[in-house]
Amino acid sequence: MKKIEFSKEEKAEIVARIRAYFDRELDPIGALPAEFLLDFFVEEIGAYFYNRGLRDAQAALLKRMEDMAEDIHLLEREEKILAP
Fold this sequence. Notes:
This protein is mainly alpha-helical. The chain has helices at residues 8-25, 31-44, 46-75. The relative contact order is 0.08.
């Protein structure tokens, strides 16, 4: 599996959100420990979130395909059977 990576801007935003959470709910945390925590989440549990996203996308796609198949079926016309 390809490693999950974030852009510099994304990482800064995530680290800021981690720090804000710690400030609000726990004890303040510095930028470096917040980055280490983010790295831990990415390495240890990131695949769970990634795979859930893939399964959700697949389910949405299958639903759309079923809807399209039903729509196509509704467009079908009755065929006349010719007597021999």
